[in-house]
Amino acid sequence: MGRRGVTRAVRDGALLVVGDVITDVVARHRGPLAPGTDTAAAIRTVPGGAGANVACWAARWGGAEVRLLGRVGRDAAAWHERELAACGVRPLLVVDEGAPTGTVICLVDEGAAAERTFLTDSGASLRLDPGDWSDALLDGVARLHLSGYLLFTEPSRAFVAVALAAARARGVPVSLDPASAGFLAELGADRFRALVDGVDVLLPSRDEACLLTGSSDAVEAAALLSRHVPLVVAKLGAEGALLARSGAVYARVPAVPATPRDTTGAGDAFTGAFLASLLAGAGPERAAAQGCGAGARAVETIGGRPPSSA
């Protein structure tokens, strides 16, 4: 269990993560794909999903209870429940009788950057709707985290609106990770900002921050976003993280050196450790340092979940 120096004085209350639970098929290859013929690869099927990954890293990194609400197909529901529980997460999975569990094919180039390309079939994961919400889900919850993938379908957008209103009524702080620059480009920056009104912490990647602001500079982008959200934590990979409030970047947190094998889930690891650290009583800068530590562990691991020794 890797708490990495965070104080053990865990605050009362659980972390509730709401988001996607996905089956990842990870294919690691070296060099460019060969169109029309075979490309040698090492292929594994592992549990994934941005929301589920965040929950697993938070549970492994911190000491608070972590719960995950997500929607899966009956085909893989029992497997995902077991895998989440093995990471210390309390699964609250809705079984969808009309759609299979979402699947992502992750193509990972084993070159120096270990860059990855995703082919995504969201399946049941984005079919959460307001009927899946109950205010009782917030009982005993100190923080609510929403996966940004929930913003990319109408039913789950309606779910987000209901969950945000319920959290605001109870005074529960809410964080959100924008999740995907590709989907954000389709959604549009203005619509995104309207949908996340009421979020306390935004955790975008560099690409997401720049796309949402139209700026090519990560510092400027984080500063601009912090005019709309009280705290922005921009994840910059090998360059660490930026923290911004009230229209200005106020802290830079360095990355932890790592030798990347697979960058899948590195941002989720950062987010999970960051949130666990906040629940443990850390301030945002200390929590971001913990996030960088988890991100470094993640890129040295195949798949998006923490290794058993994390």
From TrEMBL:
Annotated InterPro entries: Carboh/pur_kinase_PfkB_CS, PfkB_dom, Ribokinase-like
One MF term in the entry's GO annotations: kinase activity
Keyword DNA repair attributed: no
Keyword set, alphabetical order: Kinase, Transferase
Source organism superkingdom: Bacteria
Domain Carbohydrate kinase PfkB, chain residue ranges per copy: 15-307
Gene3D superfamilies on file: 3.40.1190.20
Protein name: Sugar kinase
